[in-house]
Design a protein that fits this description.
- The chain is built from six helices and two strands.
- The termini are far apart.
- The chain has one domain.
- The longest helix is centred in the first third of the chain and has 37 residues.
- The protein has 180 residues and is mainly α.
- A hairpin with a 2-residue loop joins strand 1 and strand 2.
């Protein structure tokens, strides 16, 4: 007879999988919704939300989708397996369309949209320690890349237009492919 803790673990694992699938689905729907809205008209509130959604989709979302796809390849649900493969392929196409500067900027704007302060980008931290690296990247290089993008485009809003124009057609195509 199975231990009650093992049974509970199995139940919790199934529940967690179902909840995360729904959370991921909602996150994708909102990402596609924001993409569609921004395609029609620029809105700073939607733009800020879009940076949060797209950054997470291109990082944690790709990892999650890959994990799900790998587990599905052992099953018989060919339609769902193919759906996840199309999603992963499309999201990787979006991600690789950005250069490092653009990815730094998207991550920065994600933080700017989610946190009051962006202290993690500061060299001098609240505890007066000097920070040189952020997520295995040289902080000075990140700051230089972000400043360079702003100088090149003139403003955050112009960068928004540029990045949106770059990925909106790809995101729209992914959505159309997934909903066929």
């Amino acid at each position: 007879m199975e231990d009650i803790a093992i049974i509970q673990f199995k139940i919790d694992s199934v529940i967690k999988s179902l909840v995360q699938e729904k959370q991921f689905e909602q996150w994708l729907k909102l990402t596609f919704y924001l993409n569609e809205k921004l395609l029609k008209e620029y809105d700073t509130i939607y733009q800020d939300a879009f940076y949060v959604k797209i950054y997470e989709v291109l990082t944690e979302g790709i990892l999650y989708a890959t994990k799900v796809h790998e587990s599905l390849t052992n099953g018989s649900n060919v339609h769902k397996t193919d759906w996840y493969l199309k999603l992963i392929t499309g999201l990787n196409k979006v991600k690789t369309s950005f250069n490092d500067s653009e990815l730094f900027y998207i991550e920065y704007r994600r933080h700017q949209s989610s946190h009051i302060f962006q202290n993690q980008y500061e060299h001098i931290q609240d505890n007066f320690k000097i920070k040189k690296v952020r997520n295995n990247k040289n902080l000075k290089e990140i700051n230089d890349e972000i400043k360079s993008m702003i100088a090149k485009h003139g403003s955050d809003r112009e960068i928004d237009y540029y990045l949106n124009k770059k990925i909106q057609p790809v995101l729209t195509k992914i959505y159309e492919t997934l909903t066929e």
